[in-house]
Amino acid sequence: MIPVKGYAAQSPETDLAPWDFQRREVGPHDVQFDILYCGVCHSDLHQIKNDWFPGIFPMVPGHEIVGRVVKVGDHVKNFKVGDLAGTGCLVDSCMHCENCAQDLEQYCLEGNTQTYNGMERDGSSPTYGGYSTSIVVKEHFVLKISDKLDLAATAPLLCAGITTWSPLKHWGVGKGHKLAVLGLGGLGHMGVKFGVALGAEVTVLSTSPKKEEDAKKLGAHHFVVTTDAEQVKAAHGTFDFILDTVSAPHDFNMYLGLLRTNGVMMCVGVPPEPAQVAAFSLLGGRKSLAGSGIGGIKETQEMLDFCAENGIVSDIEMINIQDITPAYERMVKGDVRYRFVIDIASLK
Amino acid sequence: MIPVKGYAAQSPETDLAPWDFQRREVGPHDVQFDILYCGVCHSDLHQIKNDWFPGIFPMVPGHEIVGRVVKVGDHVKNFKVGDLAGTGCLVDSCMHCENCAQDLEQYCLEGNTQTYNGMERDGSSPTYGGYSTSIVVKEHFVLKISDKLDLAATAPLLCAGITTWSPLKHWGVGKGHKLAVLGLGGLGHMGVKFGVALGAEVTVLSTSPKKEEDAKKLGAHHFVVTTDAEQVKAAHGTFDFILDTVSAPHDFNMYLGLLRTNGVMMCVGVPPEPAQVAAFSLLGGRKSLAGSGIGGIKETQEMLDFCAENGIVSDIEMINIQDITPAYERMVKGDVRYRFVIDIASLK
Fold first, then answer.
1. How confident is the model at residue B224 (pLDDT cuts 50, 70, 90)?
2. Disulfide: which of A290, B62, B72, B267 matches B130 by Cβ 3.0-4.6 Å?
3. pLDDT value at position A282?
4. Would you state the pLDDT for residue B125?
5. B42-78, pLDDT tens digit by residue?
6. A7 pLDDT band (50/70/90 cuts)?
7. At what angle do helices B160-170 and B297-310 cross, to 10 degrees?
8. Partner A contacted by B80 (CB < 8 A)
9. Can you give the pLDDT at residue B51?
10. Is the sign of the CA dihedral A26, A128, A332, A288 positive or negative?
11. B280 touches chain A (CB under 8 A)
């Protein structure tokens, strides 16, 4: 076994604290990489706090992981020691169901294996995430990371990036489309960058007028303050797509009203309460409320390659792991532009 | 003006009763046809009762209208006296917005003109529906009706038919797809017939085990009693599409769970309360909850032509107009197989 230093929650009631644990030995199809940076996702906090479902403790969060390969198994083909590597939300899946066969491991019909707060395929070995010094991952789930990009700012692409990229690609958002991005946080700011890079006309929808300047800097063409009735009225029926990144309660009917005929509201956030959707909000204009969860490994690699070609990374604030609890507090308040990334050197 | 006999609600508190009124003279682009049969749609009752929005009274309901042409305007090209003709939910639209230009008059951006409980484009002349002896309609909104089909049973195609046909065609339901039809009423029974005719494998989802025999007679391949937890569990993740025709409150999350990855739940019903949709119901499998409202004139004609070619009509119970109030009472209880149609001869 491989000794690793990490930060873990021992229970939903405790803050994260240092915790040493062990990774499995590197198997023939495994890649081990030392973690250099790990992004901080809002879902890390949700899972530590059992907001969605009972978690597996101790829990080492983190699924926006980048680092450098230190060991590869005998059958590993695409990585060698010294390569940059990354891992996102998934470290395994059944590999044989019809979804896995179509590169949709995120929708594995037998259940994918989450990078942390999950169980390996044996059903009994907990997975531990990227708030740690090293990780061992099956090669299929390890991503190639370009050395052209700032490495720390690349980490959030593994979740915030792919989660916004996947729906934009699946629904074919691009040139000639008007795309609204709802919420300008870790996910939303990536949605803006991708939407612009894919050729869409991008509008940021936000309750906070203060974010307009940032939205424009990120490349957004327009900005609508959603608490301003006049601005909302003017935007009525104008968008082909809304990328909804908001995980707080919000008025789905109002936003559906901003869509054109045949418009699609693509939801990637997880509000605590069910969306309340009036029938006429969908019927009047043949609209869709759709969900999308992270992305498959193939499209994650495509997204990373696109980012390398187009110079796209996340806007980040670097922290030491010892500052994770105040960082969570700031994240909850939306006080981060736009993703905290942990410098794992602080853990060593 | 043209004197017409009708049945009208004078207010939301009164039953329908005889009411004489006048239609406009036949203009150069108008077709007048004497009404022979008019289907009874649940929305007739909703509108009389102001369930959705304040109505325009007196109200003459009815938007599943078939009859025989008695007069045509000078510029009418496609109809002549003696032809069969039909009109559905729409009698006008702006004719120039981008939706009208794409044969989507039902989604006219300036608002379509409903066949009854609406206003003509002048904004001040109320429209009156098919519970009447004759109607004058702009040619563009008059449908060709085949003489190959039972005429009375054709009437419900103008609303129940097109409302279920349109989403099936829009989302490309056909061979190789598993389609569930939720609710076996006026709309649902047409959804089954169309789904089968389009080549899909059709399952009826119903709370009522008694409907299984009927579902099979209509052509459904399978039947799931949705109050039976075992049957629901077995159906989990199996459907490509659900055609949701239910206008009563129901558990959207349960039904979304029956969809496969990328599945679409196409809603054509209008439940009184908003749908409650949990984020994970959509995210887990990239599912969509979509709405669809009636259909455009071009696709209504295509549907009618398809029905003529394939011998598809509605299953109906004929009534005299004097029996409309007890018919409504039976309709509310779901006690009709599957559409009441008024023999307008009873009004003359």
1. very high
2. B62
3. 98
4. 97
5. 999 999 999 999 999 999 999 999 999 999 999 999 9
6. very high
7. 100
8. no
9. 92
10. positive
11. yes
Mean pLDDT along residues B251-267: 98
Distant-in-sequence contacts of B21-24, Cβ < 8 A, 24+ apart: B21/B58, B21/B60, B21/B128, B21/B132, B23/B128, B23/B134, B23/B135, B23/B136, B24/B125, B24/B136
CA pair distance A325, A16, nearest whole angstrom: 7
Superfamily of domain A161-291: NAD(P)-binding Rossmann-like Domain (3.40.50.720)
For A150, which DSSP code?
Answer: -
Burial category of B122 from C-beta neighbours within 10 Å (exposed 0-12, middle 13-18, buried 19 and up): exposed
* Placement of tokens 């789930």 in the chain: A141
pTM: 0.96
Fold of B2-159+295-346: Quinone Oxidoreductase; Chain A, domain 1 (3.90.180)
Residues of B in contact with A270 (CB under 8 A): 279-280, 283
Both tokens of B113, joined, read: 């003109």
Both tokens assigned to B152:
């009375």
- Report the complex ipTM: 0.95
CA distance A121 to B101: 54
Task: List the structure tokens of B111.
Answer: 């608002």
Which pLDDT value is given to residue B293? 96
Q: Is the peptide bond before A37 cis (omega within 30 degrees of 0)?
A: no
Using the Cβ of B229 and the Cβ atoms of chain A, whether some distance falls under 8 Å is answered with: no
- If you count residue pairs, one on A and one on B, with CB atoms under 8 Å apart, how many are there? 113
- For chain B, give the longest Cα–Cα distance: 63
Amino acid at B104: L
- pLDDT (mean) for A161-180: 98
Query: Using a CB-CB distance cutoff of 8 angstroms, which residues of chain B are in contact with residue A290?
Result: 282, 286-289
Residues A211-247 have pLDDT tens digits of: 999 999 999 999 999 999 999 999 999 999 999 999 9
With a CB cutoff of 8 Å and minimum separation 6, the contacts of A124 are none
Distance CA(A106)–CA(A104), nearest Å, equals 5
A234 touches chain B (CB under 8 A): no
CB A109 within 8 A of CB A99: yes
Q: Tokens 């789904």 label which residue?
A: B195
Specify which residues A275 forms β-bridges with: B277
Measure the N-to-C terminal CA separation of chain A; round to a whole number of Å: 18
Give the domain ranges of chain B.
Answer: 2-159+295-346, 161-291
DSSP label at B50?
T
pLDDT of residue A65: 98
The helix (run of H) or strand (run of E) holding residue B302 is helix B297-310
pLDDT at B66 (0 to 100): 98
Q: Does B104 touch chain A (CB under 8 A)?
A: yes
Give which of A277, A281, A287 to mutate to test B binding, by max B Cβ within 10 Å.
A277
β-bridge pairing A201-206 and A222-225? parallel
pLDDT of residue A332: 93
* B205 within 8 A of B145, measured Cβ to Cβ: no
Using the beta-carbon criterion (under 8 Å), do A276 and B281 form an inter-chain contact?
no
